[in-house]
Write a structure and sequence with these properties.
The chain is mainly alpha-helical. The mean pLDDT is 92. The protein has a 5-stranded mixed β-sheet. The chain has 2 domains: 325 residues, no CATH class; 83 residues, no CATH class.
Length: 475
C-alpha cells in the first residue's frame, strides 16, 4: 500500500508539471491563427456583433459567407459568455483554456476511479494519467492556442465517464446523460465529438462489463437521444439555417478540400509521435519494476485495452479524409493517456512502494516539486503581458488600432488576403476588418516597403510599424 506521503509527493509533482507546461505560455500574448480566429468570433458575439446562431468574424466574412460557419456554434457562445463576464483583455481566452484543462483533468481522475477498483493501490493514482496527458505535445499546444478541441475534450471525456457508470448499472439514466454530453461535443466541433457512442460496445467486448444486450441498448439509447436533440433543435429556423450551412458548405466541402497529408495513416504517425513521452516513461517504469511480473496485474490490462480502443475510436475516423492535423485528435487524448497510465500503473506502484517516505530522496523531490510550482508562478507573472509569438505583428496591429476607429475596414493587396494572423489580431483586439476588394477604403495596409496599386490616391502614415505600412486615402 502506498503511503500518504508518497501520494502527496506524486500529486505535487503532477501539479508542478501541469503548471510548468501551461502557465508561462498562457501568460503571454500571441497565438496560432485558428485559436485567435475563434477568440475573435466569440469576442464579437460578446460585444453584440453576431449572435449565437449567426456568429460573425468580420465585415467581409469568411469563405464566401457573411456568417462564421466553420464549426457548430456552441464553443463560441460559451466563450462569448466568458468575455461578457471578464472583459476584453488578452488573458480572457487563456483563462478559459486553463479552466478547460482543469475540468478535463478532474474528469480524468473521476474516470480513473470509476475504472479501478477501490481495493487496488492504483485507485488513488489518477494523477498519473493526468501527468502523462499534460506532457503530450498536442495537448498543451492546444491549450496554449485556444483550440476548439479543448472544449470538445471536456464533453467527450464526460461522455465516456457517464458511459462507464452506465455499464456498471442504471444504464438508461447514465446513457441519457452520456448522450447529452455527446450532443454538446458534436455542437462544439461536429462529427469528431461523436466517438463516445461506441464506448458501451467496446467496454463490453474488452471488459465483459454488463451484458451485450445492455451495451447495445445503451449505444442505441445514446444514438437515439442525440438524434432527438438535433431533431428538436432543427425545428428552430435559425438553428436549422446555421447547421445546414455548416454541413453543406463547410463539413462536406472540407472532406473534399485540398489534402494536408500524403497518406491516410498520417494521423496514426502523429498519434505515435505525440505519445512517445508517455510511452517511454511507461516502458522505463516496467523495466525498473522488472523484479515483479512484467505485465499489469489481472484486471487493469483489460481496462487499459478498453480505454485504448475507445481512444482510438476518436482517432481512426480522422483518417477517412486526407485533411488531417495533429490537433484534430486532441479530444481523444485524455482517454489514450488513461489507457497508457492503466497499463503502467502497477509497475509504478511497485516502484513507489520501494520508495521510503522518510528517505532523503523523497524530501529532495518534495522540495523540487515546490520549486517547480513556485517557479512556474513567478515566471508566469514575469512574462505576463509579454508576447510569445508574432511580436512585431502584434506591435503593428496595436499601432494601427490606435489610429483607426473601431469597426473600420482597411483594404490590403490580394496577395495578403491569407495573412490570417493579421486579420484575426486586428479583429480580436480592435474590431478592424480587412478587405482585399478595397475599392473606396479609407485605409490601406501593405507589407513593409510595398505600395498600394493606386498609389496616387493614398498617403503613407508615418507611424512606428515594423512589418507593415499603413496608408490613408487622400482623393
Amino acid at each position: 500500500m502506498l503511503s500518504a506521503t508518497t501520494l502527496r509527493t506524486c500529486i505535487l509533482i503532477t501539479i508542478g508539471v501541469f503548471m510548468a507546461f501551461l502557465l508561462p505560455r498562457l501568460s503571454q500574448d500571441g497565438m496560432f491563427m485558428d485559436g485567435e480566429l475563434y477568440a475573435a468570433v466569440a469576442h464579437n458575439q460578446a460585444n453584440g456583433y453576431g449572435t449565437f446562431w449567426e456568429p460573425r468574424f468580420s465585415q467581409v466574412g469568411l469563405a464566401g459567407l457573411t456568417t462564421f460557419n466553420e464549426h457548430p456554434p456552441l464553443v463560441f457562445g460559451m466563450q462569448a459568455a466568458w468575455f461578457r463576464v471578464f472583459g476584453s483583455a488578452f488573458w480572457v481566452e487563456r483563462l478559459y483554456a486553463l479552466l478547460m484543462s482543469l475540468i478535463t483533468a478532474w474528469c480524468m481522475v473521476l474516470l480513473w476511479r470509476a475504472l479501478v477498483p477501490k481495493e487496488r493501490p492504483e485507485y488513488r493514482m489518477g494523477w498519473w494519467a493526468v501527468l502523462l496527458w499534460i506532457i503530450i505535445p498536442t495537448v498543451h499546444w492546444c491549450f496554449h492556442n485556444n483550440m476548439i478541441e479543448n472544449t470538445m475534450g471536456v464533453f467527450t471525456t464526460v461522455a465516456v465517464l457517464f458511459t462507464v457508470y452506465g455499464m456498471q448499472g442504471r444504464w438508461w439514466t447514465w446513457g441519457g446523460m452520456a448522450a447529452v454530453a455527446v450532443f454538446l461535443a458534436s455542437m462544439t466541433k461536429g462529427l469528431p465529438g461523436s466517438f463516445p457512442l461506441a464506448a458501451p460496445v467496446l467496454l463490453f467486448i474488452t471488459l465483459r462489463q454488463g451484458t451485450l444486450s445492455r451495451a447495445i441498448m445503451m449505444t442505441a439509447t445514446m444514438v437515439a437521444a442525440v438524434v432527438v436533440c438535433y431533431a428538436l433543435m432543427l425545428q428552430w429556423p435559425v438553428a436549422e439555417a446555421n447547421l445546414s450551412t455548416y454541413v453543406d458548405q463547410r463539413l462536406l466541402h472540407r472532406i473534399a478540400s485540398v489534402p494536408t497529408v500524403d497518406n491516410r495513416l498520417a494521423t496514426l504517425e502523429m498519434l505515435f509521435s505525440n505519445m512517445i513521452g508517455p510511452l517511454v516513461l511507461s516502458v522505463l517504469l516496467i523495466f525498473f519494476a522488472r523484479r515483479g511480473p512484467l505485465h499489469p496485474a489481472p484486471g487493469l490490462g483489460r481496462t487499459a485495452m478498453a480505454m485504448g480502443m475507445i481512444g482510438l475510436s476518436g482517432v481512426a475516423p480522422l483518417m477517412l479524409t486526407m485533411v488531417q492535423k495533429s490537433f484534430y485528435m486532441a479530444a481523444a487524448l485524455p482517454i489514450v493517456a488513461i489507457a497508457t497510465a492503466l497499463w503502467s500503473a502497477p509497475a509504478l506502484v511497485r516502484v513507489l512502494e520501494g520508495w521510503s517516505p522518510k528517505s532523503r530522496s523523497m524530501q529532495v523531490v518534495q522540495v523540487l516539486a515546490g520549486v517547480v510550482i513556485s517557479a512556474s508562478l513567478l515566471v508566469s507573472l514575469f512574462l505576463f503581458g509579454t508576447t510569445g509569438r508574432d511580436k512585431d505583428l502584434l506591435h503593428d496591429v496595436h499601432q494601427i488600432g490606435e489610429l483607426l476607429p473601431p469597426h473600420a475596414k482597411a483594404g490590403l493587396p490580394g496577395s495578403m488576403w491569407n495573412e490570417w494572423s493579421l486579420q484575426t489580431y486586428l479583429m480580436r483586439y480592435h474590431f478592424i476588418s480587412v478587405d482585399a476588394n478595397n475599392e473606396g477604403s479609407t485605409w490601406y495596409i501593405t507589407a513593409k516597403g510595398e505600395v498600394p496599386l493606386d498609389t496616387a490616391s493614398y498617403a503613407q502614415q508615418h507611424i512606428d510599424l515594423r512589418e507593415l505600412d499603413l496608408w490613408r486615402r487622400i482623393q
